Amino acid sequence: MKNGQPEKQEFYIDDLGEWLMSEDFRRRLVAYVDALPPTRTTQTLAMEVREARLEKRLSQRDLARISGISQATISKLEAGTTDVMLETAEDLLFALGKKLEVVDIVV
User: Fold this and answer.
1) Which of 37, 60, 74, 103 is the most interior residue, by most CB within 10 Å?
2) 78, 60 in Cβ contact below 8 A?
């Protein structure tokens, strides 16, 4: 320590590689990504899933059993507190008799 300040630590490329491969980095990255707000696309998907589930009179537990996606994930999606992988979205929609579709953007 110099003048009450910690000394700067030199950081080399090798150190960066080790850091990127470390469990600490992975844990911090996951925490950072989990803290990001859901995207508008996810919010739209969440509304579609919830509306379709209620239309079919299914509980989240029922949908979890049918789709193979955990009830906790379904709850987080519908609450808008998480993003989901494309495969998860497809599994949920398939269980609800729906599908994802790519369409042209009309301007």
Assistant:
1) 74
2) yes
pTM above 0.85, yes or no: no
CATH of range 40-95; options 1.10.260.40, 3.30.1330.30, 1.10.530.10, 3.40.50.1820? 1.10.260.40
Q: CB neighbours of 90 closer than 8 A, spacing ≥ 6?
A: 99, 100
For the chain, give every domain's residue range.
40-95
Q: Which two tokens stand for residue 75?
A: 């709850």
Q: Where are the alpha helices (DSSP H) in 1-107?
A: 13-21, 23-35, 40-55, 60-67, 71-79, 86-95
Of 89, 51, 46, nearest in space to 69 by CA: 89
Question: Which of 40, 49, 53, 64 is CA-nearest to residue 100?
Answer: 49
Q: Which of 25, 7, 6, 29 is nearest to 15 (CA)?
A: 25
